Amino acid sequence: MRSLHITFCAAVVAGTIALPASAALAGPAADDSRENRPGTVSVTPSRVSPGGEVELRTDACGKGRSARGNSEAFASEARFERAGGEELVAGARIRSDAAPDDYEIWVTCKDGHGKATGTVTVVRHGHPSPVAPVRAGGGGTAVLAEEAAADEGPGTRQAVIGLGLGAVAVAAVAFRGARRRRPAQH
């Protein structure tokens, strides 16, 4: 009987401790804490050369409709607008004189109920490489040289080589035909 009494008292104490904590989480303050907590900014691409552009996304503003973002790497202030749901989107251009480094991004919601931070990495300029074949070399004469070569056709050297190969082919066919026509001698 005594163990039943102790079990009952322990359940009441546990319920008393858990009730205020669950009531605090279920109250309206939980919704406000989402808007007041610091958020993050996603940056695409996260590594960019000076003069490049990045896309910024955040959902730190909750139901806010706009925000502003700044960074020492940006050429000007980024202005966020609603993209869908609770997400805000902005575009930003990296300063052309930005040194290679990691730069912090600060976003402040227009209504003052949210803030977010993120990072963008500025990298050195890479050497540009063509993504498709390029007509290069000789300036404007490259096109003229190509047209002249197409009009001339094969030269004397190619003609002599072709005639030699043709003669070898004729001799091979004649030799093979002559061997087939001989009667078999036993």
Keywords for this structure?
single chain; alpha+beta; 186 residues; 27% strand; nine-stranded mixed beta sheet; Immunoglobulin-like; rod-shaped
Averaging pLDDT over every residue, what do you get? 75
- The 3D shape can be described as rod-shaped
Number of helices: 4
CATH level-two architecture of one domain: Sandwich
Please give the alpha-carbon distance between the first and last residues.
123 Å
CATH level-3 fold name of one domain: Immunoglobulin-like
CATH superfamily of one domain: Macroglobulin (MG2) domain
CATH class category of one domain: Mainly Beta
Provide a brief overview of the structure:
The chain has 186 residues and is α+β, with helices and mostly antiparallel strands.
What does this protein look like?
This is Secreted protein. Residues 28-54 are annotated as: Disordered. Keywords: Membrane, Signal, Transmembrane, Transmembrane helix. Residues 1-26 form the signal peptide. The chain crosses the membrane at residues 159-178. By secondary structure, the protein is an alpha+beta fold. Among the domains are: 1-35; 37-122, Immunoglobulin-like. Helices cover 38% and strands 27% of the residues. The chain is built from four helices and nine strands, in the order ααβββββββββαα. The chain has helices at residues 2-26, 29-36, 141-152, 156-181, and strands spanning 38-40, 42-44, 47-48, 53-58, 66-71, 78-84, 87-93, 101-109, 115-122. Strands 1, 2, 3, 4, 5, 6, 7, 8 and 9 form a nine-stranded mixed sheet that branches. Strand 8 and strand 9 (115-122) form a beta hairpin. It starts with a helix and ends in a 5-residue tail after the last helix. The model is unreliable at 7-16 and 18-35 (pLDDT under 50).
